[in-house]
Amino acid sequence: MDFKRYLITAALPYANGPVHIGHLAGCYLPADIYVRFLRSQKKDVQFICGSDEHGVPITIRAMKEGITPQDVVDKYNTIIKNSFEEMGISFNIYSRTSSKIHTETAQAFFLNLYNKGIFEERESEQYYDESKEMFLADRYILGTCPVCGNNNAYGDQCEKCGSSLSPEQLIDPRSALSSASLVKKKTKHWYFPLDKYENWLKEWIVEGKKDHWKSNVYGQCKSWLDNGLYPRAMTRDSTWGVPVPLPDAVGKVLYVWFDAPIGYISATKELTNLWSDYWCNEDTKLVHFIGKDNIVFHCIIFPAMLKAHGGFVLPESVPANEFLNLEGEKISTSRNWAVWVNDFLKDFPDQQDTLRYVLCANAPETKDNDFTWKDFQDRVNSELVAIFGNFVNRTFVLMHKLCKGRVPKMHNDIVDVSDNGLADDIVATKLKVEQNIENYKFRDALYEIIDLARKGNKYLQDKAPWLLAKTPELQLENQQKIDNCLHVCLQLTANLAILINPFLPFTAKKMCFMMKVVERMLEWENAGRLDLLKVSYPLRAPELLFKKIEDIEIEQQINKLKETQKTIKMSETTDKMDNTETVRQEIKLEVHAPKQEITYEDFAKLDLRVATIIGAEKVKNADKLLKIELDLKTEIRTVVSGIALHFKPEDIIGKQVTIVANLAPRKLKGIESKGMILMAENEDGRLIFVSPLEKADAGSEVK
Ligand SMILES: [Zn+2]
Hints:
Number of strands: 25
CATH class of the largest domain: Alpha Beta
Helix content: 40-55%
Bound molecules: zinc ion
Distance between the termini: 91 Å
Radius of gyration: 34 Å
CATH superfamily of the largest domain: HUPs
Largest sheet: 5 strands, antiparallel
CATH architecture of the largest domain: 3-Layer(aba) Sandwich
């Protein structure tokens, strides 16, 4: 199908931190390449983005820093916007969801659905912080992770072990805002009945999109649909966000994933009065560029919302990328494990295109990929500098030296097979680049361009015009050969500028300057032509297109990361130390406070015995527990003891311990524990067994 217009969106970045290379590689760079390619074909295209400024993490950050949520989003919106501009990400508009036009658009969208009776109103019990007088979203709730015991797990996820959780699963849930323990209170919300759109979505995605959506995107959608869809609350109890436009909804805002994608529409409205030409026409191609964590929102929830509203075009494709890791570890904003775009540009000024190159050549298009500084250096030096930059530079230097700085004439009577071969390569490369970009295979497209430059280098090497110039007796004949060679190389240079333009726009611009051509030459239809540079046209002196990356620059970056790693480790140890410190003080207090006096009869109720440990192993999914087998001479007992952090199982076998043998049995992690091992504590707070000084008879009574 031929589309009249293109509406390209890139995921709205969350305004609670700067942009890092993972963001760029994930969606902004591929989206920008695609848009620049469309623009070079003179297509009618709008490239839409903006900051996502609502949601819980922003309010938490504001509370932590003692500023307002508005202060937080103002700060990061500016940083993010500047980073994109500097990297040449060429949005038609970069808006924000805290704008008035967005509030109006999102509220009107909600009311449209509300008036059609689409929402289901439901009351439910949710955690409420009485001291702050507010309901808490999952992220505001902290507690102990039931899986790993981390006592700062969030109500939706434990960041230590990665388990996804619900607030109900947390042990001892407390408020992240006040540390108060929580009460449950009734609250009303509006649910979008995704289940009612399940059949339609199956038809649209499974029947309609399977042939051309990326397999990672299609696969994720298919598994959501196979598992069945459920109604989802589209409102939240909060004061930061788009207010729910209903009289009985005081203190409620739209769910951030309801309002954020509508941000694409409101940003287009802000950009142009003709916004509905793009959003409400079947001949618009709507493409959402996103990272893989947003697939469900863009492929299932937002399309269902658009369908429920009616009148909007649906996404034709959602080319989501996988994740980019950094030096083998997941990039993390909160842990500061990232290469921030604003930092990169400080350390590598004017090297936007080298970063664009590496992030595209190594893009996580089909699987997670790793960014390493060594690989960055290798790709820049051995591909960008040694192949592309080198070809253009040699061509210009030789043209100035051997052709008086002017585009030489082509002598058609001596054209040979390698001249024609290179001309064919240019046309073939253009087609391959086109096909790859149209299928969102930007990495392959870029590879084809570098490969064409490689062919140019080989051509130049084979023709060796510098050798031809050294034989004065054949001067006239050889000059014609030199002319042809450099004519072809210069036309190839012009073609390379057109092909590389969507990927490395700063470089293409520099090449236009050197060739003294207007940037209109970069229009895609010109690719493949061999008359782009006019004969005897004087060209400028060459400038280096790319800078070689030195070892020392890479070392500095690696050291920077090592410092970060140290800080991360230190803060993790401090956390742990803080915790043990409190626990230990509590224990000490218990030790020092004398207990109430008891009678001998009370004491005699205890059945204390010496036992020998004959087996010990860790309990699955419980960091602190050991399952211990004890020999009591008359029987073998199983006891589960919370000492795994202090002892390795293999170290305690054969040791004699004292146990309370007549303690009522209880189940821990599904294992019945009969009895309790007595422990004391040394100065360091380490647990030690209470053992007989000499070897005792196993099972003997302690009196
Ligand atoms: Zn956990």
